[in-house]
């Protein structure tokens, strides 16, 4: 958008006067922040209205992306960047003596997600918009997003994240477009004219109120919307109770309804089988589908062409209720018969699986499911009955297989099977993950309908992670290869010609140092620790989960500690180990691991012989905006999950494009990162996924892998040297909670990891060689852009022409 400085000043002044009754010169910092956001929102609204009009005329196909999570992070800088207006706003504000960076700093993260899965959804909204696609995201307007984490004496404490206080500036409430969602109640069945009519009675109505957030894209005419549903009681106040003087009771119904959208469940890669959670899921699905269908029927006067005009995407199983709910609406509210309704459902819905972790495959007890959603339960049973009939023809008499594939079995409703039965396309999120899906957990479905399955390797909104978070690097790249890469990330390959170029390597080193200094400043402020920017910055930033093996990293650090203690002159390249991770509130082992990291940090820091060589830092409250500070400063990217468990990873891609070199197993998208950069530009270690399988088959005995060095480290966990005795952790490395061997095989991979770490230390000493590796990583990161991924979704899954 083309605005001059004076025009921008006018916009700011007018808005500030209208909202706060003062000019921007007299505004408080908070008022200035809000004014700026409102002005940006107005600009987006104007663009949106043009885009929607153009689109309406074209009658193209559009996508609705259903996700319980969108980890939006901050929007202000991103929107200004995307609109190409950052510098004009900066100078207009500067003239008013307002520093735009201090306004940026006021914005809370919209933390409506847990980790990779939620962030991916936001990256895809960005890419859809940048590609000019009409795409709408649907989720929940959690009043409290992912909790704020504080570490007190090594323990994680959770505090509510009241993001709306400053974050609601981006939202537009549209009360008049609300829908009623029905929970509980009973069903009445009547036969009229040979047709069964089901009426849902005595239900608890909850109103879903939509709030729109505009999503901008880079250099595009498009502006999309993320629609967030908020739960509310349709009856604000129970007047009868109120007149009786029962004031609290009179508000009870409202409170009960509102609780549905109160808080995001902080579980990542595992399920929280709570009643409230299924209500959240149904609220999202039912409200979104009602709104999609209403809009469609207004425009086309029929739903027969729904699959031609609309793709509805189920992001992981959390919105899997789309399957029975779409069927229900078509039958109960639009009068379709089963076969026609099912045909529309199956041609409209698509599904992405994001994990093979068995504890994350959602299942609901039938009793809970049927009590909360009686009509939906009835429909699920019918889907199940018809499917089982079909499967009986394909796998006659193979009861075990049919049971395994059924949406309803053993007293549970299984959401993944529901998606597999209904969706016409199903994808995994990296080559390895998609292979695992078709060769193991979804094999039986794959055998019947192989064409249904495909892969889309994840991608990132790289303009946020490179151009906005690391403008210094982006500008160097522009000087070297021009700015084509800002539209087309694969153009980064042009950097390869600078391999070995002394000047370029030196510039890269300088930029990295600047970003490391910035992180060091943050750490000094947040943790009160001084870290040395000339040490290797080795980072592991992601959710705390046993399969991600933060423990492997910790064991290795303890080993390094021993090496230095034994020989204070040992040849160790100074290293700063940076951790940041949130643990699910109820995940005790994960919390213990955080405590262990803090204890190791203290041990290292208290020892004069060691602290100049290694530092361990746990930065609290990991979130998108913190990642934007850590990632540009990273040199080593720890991606060390046990092979076969990390579906893809996306932090690995963000780190890579900022020049960090991966130290990892051949898991998830690391496999493809390795394919891109070649084995010389990545530090690989550990078992491959087939080797892991093989070891399980042979029988895994951790004790067999305990070397003398490792024994010494393991003993430290319980000896008291760390202040606390970490008995549980020590046991978990040898056995799991059922008394069988540790499912994450940390010990089996230790020796190979230790050696890889040794190589890292050595190779880093040759700064130019290491920077060359870094350069190759940046150059080869283009394929991991969300633009590429969304194009693949459009082509192979949604059937949308771009
Ligand atoms: C996740 C996976 O664990 C990640 O490997 C993946 O990158 C991400 C996005 O596809 O999805 N699944 C999940 O439940 N949480 C994730 O972050």
TrEMBL record:
The modification N6-(pyridoxal phosphate)lysine is found at residue 654. One of its GO terms (biological process) is glycogen catabolic process. Its EC number is 2.4.1.1. Its main location: cytoplasm. It is an enzyme of class 2 (transferase). It catalyses: [(1->4)-alpha-D-glucosyl](n) + phosphate = [(1->4)-alpha-D-glucosyl](n-1) + alpha-D-glucose 1-phosphate. It is found in: Cytoplasm. GO terms for cellular component: cytoplasm. One of its GO terms (molecular function) is glycogen phosphorylase activity. The keyword Glycosyltransferase applies. Keywords: Allosteric enzyme, Carbohydrate metabolism, Cytoplasm, Glycosyltransferase, Pyridoxal phosphate, Transferase. SUPFAM superfamilies: UDP-Glycosyltransferase/glycogen phosphorylase (SSF53756). Gene3D superfamilies: Glycogen Phosphorylase B. The keyword Glycosyltransferase applies. Its cofactor is pyridoxal 5'-phosphate. Allosteric enzyme that catalyzes the rate-limiting step in glycogen catabolism, the phosphorolytic cleavage of glycogen to produce glucose-1-phosphate, and plays a central role in maintaining cellular and organismal glucose homeostasis. Phosphorylase is an important allosteric enzyme in carbohydrate metabolism. Enzymes from different sources differ in their regulatory mechanisms and in their natural substrates. However, all known phosphorylases share catalytic and structural properties. Belongs to the glycogen phosphorylase family. This is Alpha-1,4 glucan phosphorylase.
